[in-house]
Amino acid sequence: MPDYQPKPSVSLIRCKSYDRGLVEASVRRAVALLGGADRFVRPGDRVLLKPNMLSGKAPNKAVTTHPEVVRAVVRLVKEAGGIPSIGDSNALGSFAKVSEVTGMARVARDEGAELVELSEAVDVHGKGKFKHFELSKAAMEADVVINLPKAKTHGQMLLTLAVKNLFGCIPGRRKAQWHFKAGVDREAFATMLVELSGLVRPCLSIIDAVVGMEGNGPGSGTPREVGLIGASADPHALDMVMASVLGVTADRLPTLKAARGLGLIPRSISEIELAGDFGNPAQAAVRGFRLPSESSLEWSIPEPVRRLLKESLTTKPRIHRKSCKFCLMCQTACPVGAITEGRDGMSIDYRQCIRCFCCQEVCPVGAIDIAEGWLLRYLG
Ligand code: SF4
Ligand code: SF4
User: Which of 7, 98, 136, 275 could form a cystine bridge with 90, CB 3.0-4.6 A?
Assistant: First the structure.
C-alpha cells in the first residue's frame, strides 16, 4: 500500500437548523477555517456546484442537499469572483421537475446561478483499474468543481458522503452500466467511485449533515438530525470524519477501504487535522445512527465470501406489494432487468439481481427496503 503523505484538514461546524442566516454563517466558517473561498476560487472561474439531487423530493425529506446550503455556497463563490452553476444528473425523472421540487431552481433564480443538467458526456481516460469513463462534460470543463453531498445511508455503499456524491457526474443512464459492470462486487464499485473522484477532482467538498438520513437510504430513509456542516479540500478525509461521526469506521465503508488501498487516506483518523467546534469526531458522534441493514455483520464479511454465498449471505431488495403504486420506476432503473410486473405485483428475480439497490434508490414511496439473506439473519 502506498504511504499516505499529506495531513488533510477537515472543518466541522455545529449547525442546528436550516435557518438561512445560520446555514450561511456555518458554511462561511467551515470554508474560512480551510483558508477561505479565495483559496479555492479565482476571479472569473466557472464553478460547478454538485449537490445531491437524487430525485424530486422536498428538502425536508433529507434525500437531497438542502437548498440553503447550496445558496450559501453560491454566495461565497460569487464573492470570490467565480461564476457559479448548479448541476447534477438525477436518477430518474425530469431534471427541471427535480430542480423545482428540491428547491435548487429557486436558489438558482434568486442568486443568479445557472442550472445545468449533467447529461452530456465526454470520454475520459482512467488512471487506475478502470481505463475508460464517460463523465459529464460540464463537470470536466468547469474550472472548479465544488462537491455538495448530503450525509445519508446507502443500501449498497452503506453511506453516501462526499466520494459517492460524485457518481452523479456520470450522466443519466450511463450510471446503470457501471452497476452492471461491477455486478455484485461492492469492492469494485467502490474502487470505481474513488477513481472517479480522482478524475473529477473537486477542489472543495462541503457536506450537508444538518439533517441527514438514517435507515432505508438513500431515497426512503428517515430524516435524522445530525446538526453539522463539514468541509474539506480532501473528500476522503471528509468522509473519514463524517463516517466516524455516524458510527462507521474506515474499514467498514467500501469507498474508504478502497481509498486506503490506494494510499489516499491516513492510517488513523487522528492524523486528520480537525478545525471548528470539535476536538475530535467522537465529540460530534450521533448515537444509534441506523444503517440500511438491520445487521452490521454483512459489512465485515470478505467480498469473495459474499460473492460465493450471494443468496444466503448478502442483503437484497424486497418489494412491499401493499405499499407499491406500480409506477414501474424500479423496473426502469434496474440495470439487469431483474424486476418484472406480474398479476400479483412487482417481483424481483434474485438470481439476476446484482444488489446495486438502484430500485430502492428510485422508489418514490419507499416500497422497497433491504432484507437480509437467511444465513446473515441466522448469524446475526
Ligand atoms: S433488482 Fe434492484 S438491486 Fe437488484 S439489480 Fe435490479 S435494481 Fe439492482
Ligand atoms: S418503484 Fe416502488 S412504487 Fe414504483 S413499481 Fe417499484 S416498488 Fe412499486
Answer: 98
